[in-house]
């Protein structure tokens, strides 16, 4: 507690505990706020309530088994996590993934981005009192989840990307559902924008709130739409293209204002850009072709082959019992997840288990900026600022 | 990917060699990624140099992560993943720390984002960062004993 000068003389500040059980902290985030009236003097962020030791667990699993725990970090974008991890292991192995699998990966991660932004938009809006948008967003998200369920068998914990390609051939007719999404979603995005973009209450709650300058954002390591709302155009898909992103034509929405409203506009524009990528990917994906790399001993053999070839059966047995051993060395693979730069660092010692697996998660780093955004501002702006950072506690605490 | 380019002519390496030839003890090139092994006492000044140099401009620190090589000595390893937005270039700095005194100067004054990364490494590996503004436990409870990501710490936790 400190003494602050007010208009009526010196006064004591009040300490207010927000969270870990609080609906607008999007999980179990605790913020200790020191308040002077309604103004935040100091904000101390306390995390770790969802720490499950994923990085430690990975050290006891084989490279293939680890894919399943990457789903559980950013549970709103499991396919992005799968992709970062698989690309890192493929880089370690020097493995080339067939083009068809790469395009399907791009298509699905872009749908993931839309799905994740929909949850963000819905929950951010409901935090600020706009109930309707939430219901609309979750209606649309359901369509995306049904696509993920169709291709992988799971709505959320997909584990669909595997080292060297995809787990299995997507079910017949999945493209029809994607076509339906591409056809209907643009008008749905218009609907959200009709409700929010020119809404005076929405503007009053977000414009000039949660200010973050470009210099501060870079210094604090902020990435993703939160960085691009401050006028920096860093997008991993453009800077360091992976999974054939360089073959796609899309824009990176950037706003210079650096407030919650700018980040809102960035994310909405990003959803439209993602649809553009999905449309291109639909044209690019060939009807036929391999979805797994030809790498015996690393990629599981086809079921049919196992019935007639002894080697295939041996490889299958070895992959699922002891796994495969990449060469010793370290790699760092970054991708653009819905929240920003998702990096996967793997140190291999030449054994079939990752010696060290580290995820650089964008939510963890972005959350550091909260203090800068809220100190000296009103307590109501804390809610808007947490919402606009689009954090997922699962990937913060890991 | 496998063919090693001429590392000494790499602009980053050349610049550092011209600045302090003794700062880098080893160059590693693996899968297209350049790693500079930095002597412990030079890390902080090298960080300042890399961030302030107008050409190199490594102003963005993506990640800091630790590795425990137990029982090999020097036991601990720190990896700093740097990014230069203007040149679209990346770099990894590596520092090796001995098991009995895993202490290093903090880089928070150079890259404020290192604050939470260093706190997390302190929490999970027990390495200490001199000059860190707020070195507290982060993910584990304040009264937790031991450092979970160390290799001599069992996956199931202490028994």
Order of strands, widest sheet of chain A = 3-4-5
Helix run count of chain B? 3
- The number of distinct β-strands of chain B equals 7
Mean pLDDT of chain B: 87
Helix content of chain A: 40-55%
Q: Count the strands of chain A?
A: 10
**Topology of chain A as a string of helices (H) and strands (E):** EEEEEHHHHHEEHHHHHHHHEEEHHHH
Unreliably modeled segments of chain B: none
What does the largest sheet of chain A look like? 3 strands, antiparallel
Overall 3D form of chain A: globular
Characterize the overall form of chain B: globular
Tell me the β content of chain B: 25-35%
Number of helical segments with 4 or more residues of chain A: 17
Percent strand of chain A equals: 5-15%
Overview of this structure, please?
The complex is a heterodimer of chains A (398) and B (159). With 398 residues, chain A is of the alpha+beta class. Helices cover 49% and strands 14% of the residues of chain A. The radius of gyration of chain A is 22 Å and the shape is globular. In chain A, 50% of the residues are buried. The mean pLDDT of chain A is 89. By secondary structure, chain B is of the alpha/beta class. In chain B, the strands form 2 sheets. Chain B has a 5-stranded mixed sheet with strand order 1-2-5-4-3. A two-stranded parallel ribbon of chain B has the order 6-7. In chain B, a hairpin with a 2-residue loop joins strand 1 and strand 2. The interface between A and B is large, with 38 and 36 residues.
């Amino acid at each position: 507690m400190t003494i602050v000068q007010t208009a009526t003389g010196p006064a004591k500040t009040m300490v207010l505990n927000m969270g870990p059980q609080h609906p607008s902290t999007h999980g179990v985030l605790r913020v200790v706020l020191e308040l002077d009236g309604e103004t935040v003097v100091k904000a101390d962020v306390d995390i770790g309530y969802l720490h499950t030791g994923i990085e430690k667990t990975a050290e006891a699993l084989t490279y293939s088994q680890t894919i399943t725990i990457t789903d559980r970090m950013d549970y709103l974008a499991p396919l992005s996590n799968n992709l970062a991890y698989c690309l890192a292991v493929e880089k370690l192995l020097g493995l080339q993934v067939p083009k068809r699998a790469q395009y399907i990966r791009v298509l699905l991660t872009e749908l993931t981005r839309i799905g994740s932004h929909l949850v963000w938009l819905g929950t951010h809006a409901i935090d600020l009192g706009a109930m309707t948008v939430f219901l609309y967003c979750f209606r649309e998200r359901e369509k995306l989840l049904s696509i993920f369920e169709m291709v992988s068998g799971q709505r959320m914990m997909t584990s669909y990307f595997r080292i060297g390609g995809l787990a299995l051939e997507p079910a017949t007719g999945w493209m029809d559902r994607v076509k339906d999404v591409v056809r209907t979603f643009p008008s749905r995005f218009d609907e959200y924008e009709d409700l929010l973009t020119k809404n005076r209450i929405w503007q009053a709650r977000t414009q000039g709130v949660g200010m973050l300058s470009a210099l501060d954002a870079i210094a604090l390591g902020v990435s993703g739409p939160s960085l691009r709302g401050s006028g920096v155009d860093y997008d991993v898909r453009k800077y360091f293209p992976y999974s054939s992103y360089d073959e796609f034509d899309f824009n990176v929405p950037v706003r210079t204002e650096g407030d919650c409203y700018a980040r809102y506009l960035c994310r909405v524009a990003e959803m439209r850009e993602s649809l553009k990528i999905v449309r291109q990917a639909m044209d690019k994906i060939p009807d036929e072709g391999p979805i797994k790399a030809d790498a015996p001993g690393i990629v599981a053999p086809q079921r049919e082959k196992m019935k007639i070839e002894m080697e295939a059966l041996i490889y299958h047995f070895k992959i699922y019992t002891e796994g495969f051993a990449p060469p010793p060395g370290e790699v760092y693979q970054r991708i653009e997840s819905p929240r920003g730069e998702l990096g996967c660092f793997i140190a291999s010692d030449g054994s079939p288990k990752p010696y060290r697996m580290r995820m650089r998660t964008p939510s963890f780093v972005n959350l550091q900026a909260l203090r800068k955004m809220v100190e000296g501002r009103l307590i109501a702006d804390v809610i808007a600022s947490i919402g606009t950072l689009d954090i997922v506690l699962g990937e913060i605490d890991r | 990917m496998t063919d090693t380019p001429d590392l000494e002519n790499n602009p980053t390496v050349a610049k550092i060699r011209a600045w302090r030839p003794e700062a880098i003890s080893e160059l590693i090139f693996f899968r297209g990624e350049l790693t500079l092994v930095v002597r412990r006492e030079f890390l902080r000044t090298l960080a300042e140099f890399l961030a302030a140099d107008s050409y190199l401009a490594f102003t963005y620190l993506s990640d800091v992560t630790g590795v425990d090589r137990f029982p090999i000595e020097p036991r601990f390893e720190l990896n700093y993943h740097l990014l230069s937005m203007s040149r679209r270039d990346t770099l990894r700095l590596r520092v090796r720390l001995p098991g009995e005194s895993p202490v290093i100067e903090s880089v928070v004054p150079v890259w404020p984002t290192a604050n939470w990364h260093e706190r997390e490494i302190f929490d999970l590996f027990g390495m200490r960062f001199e000059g860190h503004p707020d070195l507290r436990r982060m993910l584990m409870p304040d009264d937790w004993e031991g450092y979970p990501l160390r290799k001599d710490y069992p996956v199931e936790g202490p028994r």
